[in-house]
Amino acid sequence: MLEIIGAVLSFVGAQILFSRTKLAEWLTPWKSVGFTILIISFSIVLFSALGSTYYLIVIMPTIVCSVMVSTRYRDYLMRLQSRRVQWKENKE
């Protein structure tokens, strides 16, 4: 039960953090994927080192990183769409 509550709270917190603030704006979508792989790998190593008893060590960073990657990709697509609209307007 604690894992579910922690997962929901980390999801909501990450949505607020990455949507409202521009915390990870310096990361491109590909850099955010690499950063995510690094963080999740570290959490798996930490999970193994602590004796595989605290599942939230892996669950929470995975959720936060997935929200970060999806937010960065969404921002990238929105910028690409606005550039396309501007290009079409300038073309006419």
- Largest sheet features: none
Strand content: under 5%
Integer-rounded radius of gyration: 17 Å
Amino- and carboxy-terminal Cα gap = 58 Å
Give the class from helix and strand content and strand pairing.
mainly alpha
Number of DSSP helical runs: 3
The coarse overall form would be elongated
Low-confidence stretches: none
SSE string:
HHH
- Share in helix: over 70%
Number of strands: 0
Mean of residue pLDDT values: 86
Question: What does this protein look like?
Answer:
With 92 residues, the chain is mainly alpha-helical. It is 83% helix and 0% strand. Helix 1 (2-20) packs parallel to helix 3 (56-91) and helix 2 (29-49) runs antiparallel to helix 3. The longest helix has 36 residues, at 56-91.
Keywords summarizing the entry:
3 helices, mainly alpha, elongated
How would the blueprint of this fold be written?
Elements lengths: L1 H19 L8 H21 L6 H36 L1
Compact overview of the structure:
The chain is mainly alpha-helical and 92 residues long. The protein contains 3 helices and no strands.
